Amino acid sequence: MEEIIVSVLQRTLVAGTPLLLGTIGEVLCERSGILNLGVEGVMSMGAVTAFIVTFATGSPWLGLAVAILAGMLISIVHAFASVTLQSNQVVSGLALTMLGLGISGLLGKPYIGTPLSVKMNTLPIPGLVDIPYIGRIFFDQSPFFYMAMVLAFIAWFILVHTSLGIKIRSTGENPRATETQGVNVSLVKYLCVIIGGGFSGMAGANLSISYSKSWIEGMTAGRGWIVVALTIFALWNPTRAVIGAFLFGGIFVLQYLIQPFGISPNLLAMLPYLATLVVLVAIGMRDSNKLNAPAMLGEPYKRGER
Amino acid sequence: MRLISRILAVSLFLMFCSGQVLAKNKLKAGFIYVGPIGDYGWSHAHDVGRKYAHDKLPWLESVFIESVAESDSTRIIDRFVQEEKVDVVFTTSFGYMNDTIKAGMKYPDTHFMHCSGFKQSKNVGTYFADLYQMYYLNGLMAGALTKSNKIGYVAAFPIPELIRHIDAYALGIRAVNPKAEVHVRWIYAWYGPDKAKEAAEALIAEGVDVLAFTEDTPAVIEVGQEHTEKGKQIYTFSHYSPMQAYGVDSVVSGQLVDWGIMYVKILKSLKDGTWNNKDMWWLAAEDAAILGGTFDEIINKKFIPDLKAVKVNTPDLGKQSVYDLVVKRYDQMKQGVEVFDPFVGPIYDNQGNLKIKKGARASKGDLLSIMYYVDGVVGSIPK
């Protein structure tokens, strides 16, 4: 029994890590007032580029760096459309998803079924890994897990405790007032979208060079959409995203553990998506003032207009 | 002018004749694959077979198209017949069955070979290499090696082919270890490394120490190798392609398919006119189903001492080591199902009902429609 619990918790953290990485990026992006529905496509781009670079060079860290870069680059499309052109963010986000999935499918074709010989290995933290139970659960993980935890904390600290964070948040709440304070609202939005894309790229790399070491078309498997839901679940707070991501990761892992109890595998497979819906409904039914949603989320901002 | 036209006519006639001669000497085959040939599983194995036939048959020309959706084969067949002018089309997935039969009616002068189906017509034949015997042999080894008496199976879809494999595996396990149980997890994907991985991890967490699977990637083997490297020995069995390289400390054996000899036989029969539409269901006796995690050895050398150490009693061959038993059974299987077959009664399902009477052998039809777990498999088949 102990063995099962330790393993489930350990696997939960593994499965939740890409969700957490994506969610931190989306929180940052939405805090600046830009809704980005392109996460799925950007993740896929990150996955394929990380795989190709790792495959060619044998260095997973180089793969990760290129994936982050690729995520940032492709997100410029969304930033340009929603900030400079002030177009509908839902449309350009969806376009980004389709673009990302398409390009990555095309780039990845020759690599289907060819596994990597190296991958981002787990990094046991010396000393801490020997703690009974806790060590195996928390300190025998891949570098992605540690990075995600640290980045979640940094993102929270920046958003809540620094002047840069205030600029980002107020850009999402009231861009006009922010601009009168001398803040370059467009620049803040651009930065947040692009950095958010970097996080999604990182999440994709996590899938293709650490979680598994192969590329398949559609390997992001809807995780980008769960990230969008998780952002709401976390009420736009990176620390709460930690809880949400691992809750969702746990459901994925539990699927195979509770299968023998006669629960339909199809039902289990849809549990994460069902949970997404429940979260949306439950939060939607609460007092919307407490939701903490950025007031101008998804609204294009035009300078000097009333 | 008349001279020129006569020369033209003669040369045209000659060209036509030589064309005829060429067409008689060459045979062109078109292959339709359901997955990418790089899947390292099903489609990969078929393409290895196609290449093998190429090396063996100098008169063979071939074309292939990969990743063809099961509902999309008609378009590809049309293209093969009309533009590529192939003499035979191989449709290598179960879901192509009805479209292949329809194509057979549409193109009566072309031959069609459908893999894994059960419908034939005048110019449509079927072929399949079944691996259940190899799963039985894997089961013998799994039953001998397990310490926890919990043995895992990561399975793709609940269809008769997989049930047959799981049952044969369980029969093998029970033949050497009556206390061991088989735990099955369904992932509902032929190609889903992340699902196979989590299913394997869940099984290991529950105490399973031996894993077999039906999924087209080495994901399960990677999990076994990872745990073994960390100090917990997990035994795995490779599936379809030689995957031992992915888990040198974990893969004990496995099953391999040689489509090559089958394709050579089919193509030769088409060439010399002896082809017929009788279903070809090839097993160990035809050398289509092969034991091993690599083509070089039937059992990973690392585990041979362990298998030799376990002694087991059999009704027909007496007391001997599991290693010797595997070798002997494999040899018997190669002689034919009449000499030895796993599905000889009495066989009970896991509810205790007698399914195959004492001394009776399951027919091909029984095996192709089998939908019950034998004794030793835990749980029930999902609806």
Name the descriptors.
heterodimer, A: 306 residues, mainly alpha, ABC transporter involved in vitamin B12 uptake, BtuC, 70% helix, 0% strand, globular, B: 383 residues, alpha/beta, Rossmann fold, 2 domains, six-stranded parallel beta sheet, six-stranded mixed beta sheet, 12 helices, 40% helix, 20% strand, elongated
Explain this structure to me?
- The complex is a heterodimer of chains A (306) and B (383).
- Chain A is globular and about 60 Å long.
- Chain A is 70% helix and 0% strand.
- Chain A has 306 residues and is mainly α.
- Chain B folds into two domains: 2-129, Rossmann fold (3-Layer(aba) Sandwich), CATH 3.40.50.2300; 132-257 and 290-368, Rossmann fold, CATH 3.40.50.
- In chain B, strands 2-1-3-4-5-11 form a six-stranded parallel β-sheet, sandwiched between helices. A six-stranded mixed β-sheet of chain B has the order 7-6-8-9-10-12, with helices on both faces.
- The model of chain B is unreliable at 17-22 (pLDDT under 50).
- The interface between A and B is medium-sized, with 33 and 35 residues.
SSE arrangement:
The complex is a heterodimer of chains A (306) and B (383).
Chain A: H1 2-31, H2 39-57, H3 60-84, H4 89-108, H5 134-138, H6 143-161, H7 163-173, H8 175-180, H9 185-211, H10 223-233, H11 238-257, H12 265-285
Chain B: H1 2-25, E1 27-32, H2 42-56, E2 60-65, H3 73-82, E3 88-91, H4 97-106, E4 111-115, E5 124-129, H5 132-145, E6 150-155, H6 160-176, E7 181-186, H7 193-205, E8 210-213, H8 219-229, E9 235-240, E10 251-257, H9 259-272, E11 280-282, E12 289-291, H10 304-309, E13 311-314, E14 318-321, H11 322-335, E15 347-348, E16 354-356, H12 364-368
Parallel strand pairs in B: 1-2, 1-3, 3-4, 4-5, 5-11, 6-7, 6-8, 8-9, 9-10
Antiparallel strand pairs in B: 10-12, 13-14, 15-16
Helix pairs in contact in B: 2-9, 5-6, 5-11, 7-8
